[in-house]
């Protein structure tokens, strides 16, 4: 499937009538906060890397699009928050260091860390002919879970890892951490389900109000079932981790040194997960889903307002937890030593 990234480039050039959003957001904060799974808890159990609106905090209710003063995303009406666990490298001497996040080559240069966010309609090549209903104020969901085992990744075909030769490598996608150091770093992919029950903005497990019919990432989903009949945007995150600076101290005994911030004791990355809190202003996301724009052609008011990389990078959320997360650490933030 090496042709994939070429196909994407071609489509962007020759098919301007097809709609999809792909855009960069720089890091808005790295903190132990989780307003979806552990609302009100300061600090939360594990460290997250977060992009989007600067209202991000332990508790978030109501219309997020009306909260905060700036966003780290290209689209300046998007005050949503998007987050995942943070990747750490475990030294053979027992210390941990946070793996820095690097920017995606497919995006404008200079974005500070962050993620690439997608809202596609059918797949990478077409918007299909279905009406896509935008998420509503107050909507939130998660995909994956820190407690899931290997069966979780068999079920969730949208949770994947790519060992990068360079920043443009996209295949193969694998379902656990690579077993050797990667020349160009590691990419994590999180594809969310896109069929909504039409009623609940959230559910007790933050997942059962949604249903996944996508066979694998960026492919057309089967029809939504009657229990979850409303087709919503196909949301996906890509995060590029700069593991290369650890390649010279990679263990030679075959053990895996990568560990997610939630502990991830099995060391396979099975617990990979992501969270989403909708926060587009007004009807901006619905306007985009109704339009025929593709990727950067949706910027500059056609139909979405956009901002420069400098403005994106200037936006930050308040640090309410204040703990050391960088340099060599004795333990993962929030975890007892040696775990
Ligand atoms: C963040 O949330 C905590 C707990 O809900 C609250 O005490 C604090 O005032 C909030 N901080 C900001 C900057 O809003
Ligand atoms: C492990 O190695 C790193 C890098 O050399 C060093 O900074 C850190 O202090 C070491 N940790 C322990 C527990 O020796
Ligand atoms: C989007 O399209 C639907 C169906 O055609 C229409 O009812 C709705 O008003 C449109 N919304 C916006 C914001 O353009």
UniProtKB/TrEMBL annotation:
Signal peptide residues are 1-19
Domain of life, per lineage: Eukaryota
Alphabetized UniProt keyword annotations: Signal
Tell me which Pfam families the record gives.
DUF1996 (PF09362)
All copies of domain DUF1996, residue ranges: 34-280
UniProt keyword Signal, yes or no: yes
Q: What is this protein called?
A: DUF1996 domain-containing protein
Q: Which organism is it from?
A: Glonium stellatum
